[in-house]
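# step 3/5: fold
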Amino acid sequence: MNFEKYIDSKLYHFFDKAFNLIVINLLLILISILGLGVFTLFPALAATYVLLQCESNDIGVSLIKSFYIVMKKDYIKLQKLFIMIVLIIGIFAFNTMFFYEYAISQNGSMFHFVGLFVILSIDLLIIGMLLHLFPVYMYFNKLKPIGIIKFSTLMVFAYPFRTILVVLISFGWILLISFQPPTIPFISVTIPIYIYLKLFNSTYKKLTNNDTPIENYYFS
């Protein structure tokens, strides 16, 4: 009887968590679309990370209400961060296309090949930085947007192997769900983020010296 209760509690916990991850994923996609991918994307992503962190630590919160609270908490700062990231991606995307065009398509000089190698290396660094962006915002909420970008970049150098692991998991997950498009609205984003938080949770706690729990910043 006790064994059955144990199994029932484990199953309930699993399905409850799975349901919450699906709801958070739906909220992220819906609110991002409503904001045209410009006005709500970063605030919605921040809310997604915070709520998934709560899920990771088994902290029960009202999903819809909490999503809204986190979104409006640092809305202006997150929009500034969004603009900076768009500019960074835009600049390096242009440079990548420029050097690729000359190095590959037009049989360019050694300068173009070296330039392409350097730019592609920076592109990979940017991908790694983006993976750490919102956890850094979440754990170091006093940082300004430029500080978040700098710290996120440092995280790539400080934890290269785990960063590469998360990149591989994320790309593998994208490839996997591409074969099942109907699952995209339900689990496309929350699963890799949840895995990231599990992998880096102890690291961020050490970096913050187990300071005030992040949920206190948003919900107290």
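# step 4/5: annotate
The mean pLDDT is 89.
# step 5/5: archive (pending)
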